[in-house]
Amino acid sequence: MNYLSINEIDNLSEWVKEAIDLKNNPLKHQGLGKNKTIGLLFFNNSLRTRLSTQKAAINLGMDPIVMNFGSEGWALEFEDGTVMDQGKSEHVKEAAQVISQFCDVIAIRAFASLTDKEKDLAEEVLAAFVKYATVPIVNMESSVGHPLQALADAITMEEFKVSHRPKVVLSWAPHPKALPHAVANSFIEMMQKQDAEFVITHPKGYELNPEIVKDSIVEYSQEKAFENADFIYTKNWSSFNDYGKVISQDNSWMITSDKMEKTNDAKFMHCLPVRRNVVVTDEVLDSENSIVIQQANNRTYSAQVVLKRILEE
Ligand code: CP
After folding, report:
1. pLDDT tens digits for 27-79?
2. Which of 153, 178, 242, 246 is deepest in the core (most CB within 10 A)?
3. Ligand 1 mutation target, pool 42, 43, 45, 46, most atoms within 8 A of CB
4. Do 272 and 305 share a domain, yes or no?
5. Which residue from 41, 51, 52, 141 has its CB within 8 A of the most atoms of ligand 1, so it is best to mutate?
6. Same domain, 119 and 168
7. What pLDDT does 82 receive?
8. Ligand 1 probe mutation, 45, 48, 187, 294, most atoms within 8 A of CB
């Protein structure tokens, strides 16, 4: 079993329930991963994913080994049939097979380039490891998705929801840098598996991949979208159509207390890291309704339920 996208989840509520059970008794399955090794390969920076996935593995009795490919590994070639006379020292074909001999599970973080849409949509790095590795692969944020984050988001909403069918708003917010679409994509896919009123709001020009958005509601008025919301999930992303470009940094989209007052006492969520007073004001982020720290904590249990299921298989 691989965990490449949120669509690997057959029954979201069962996975969420299992994750909450693990949270209540995290060391219950410590024998499951005994003498098993997970290799965490990072082509990009991380705080939460790196530590929570290690913690999840340790809770299951696994031994994690971590490699920062971006700064420590040989630069990898992903194209087949290339004459490797330039900067790349090793082909992923050998690298993935070699790592598979050291590890029982391989987890990979490889962000979108935001320059080559075709390669990003084809999940160049993740797909190459799936092709050449001989052990299960876990996506720790790829060019298209961040399914460990989305599962943690589902766990968090289950813990904090006050109505059976909450209104959940995914709101774009400004950011000075071009950011990938992965978190928003997986959040949307996860919400499509939930019984909730789900609304996406962003300025015109920030439409996400229509193959992911499908028939989810898009409301261009942030103010209107926030009305009666139970959860405000905020994330910046760059343009998908004008691929990887920051086409506006409209500060009027920042999440403020005035906007949160329009909601149904909504909880504020963000995957972190977040830029204070750019994406969201201090007042909102430090408020009692902000559940970003609890949300980050659930990263351990989303990773743990995924690893548990892989080990059981
Ligand atoms: N949310 C998240 O994936 O955080 P990191 O980038 O710090 O891992």
Report:
1. 999 999 999 999 999 999 999 999 999 999 999 999 999 999 888 889 999 99
2. 153
3. 46
4. no
5. 141
6. no
7. 95
8. 48
Which is nearest to 137 in space by CA: 2, 37, 33, 6? 2
| CATH number for the domain that contains residue 209 | 3.40.50.1370
Do 136 and 165 belong together in one domain? no
Q: 152 in a domain, yes or no?
A: no
> Which has the higher per-residue pLDDT, 86 or 73?
86
Across the chain, what does the average pLDDT equal?
Answer: 97
Residues 218 and 184: beta-carbon distance below 8 Å: no
In this structure, the answer to whether residues 165 and 235 fall within a common structural domain is yes
Whether the pLDDT of residue 248 is over 90: the answer is no
Q: According to the model, what pLDDT value does residue 70 have?
A: 80
- Domain match, 52 and 168 both: no
Residues 125 and 232 in one domain: no
Instruction: Report the domain count for the chain.
Output: 2
| Residue 306 binned pLDDT confidence (cut-offs 50, 70, 90) | very high
- Which residues are near ligand 1 (CB < 6 Å)? 46-49, 141, 149, 271-273
Atom of ligand 1 nearest to the CA of 50: 8
Q: Could you tell me if 117 and 51 lie in one domain?
A: yes
Do 108 and 166 fall within a single domain? no
Residue 156 domain-assigned (yes or no): no
In ligand 1, which atom is closest to the CA atom of 45? 6
Residue range of the domain that includes 257 = 161-290
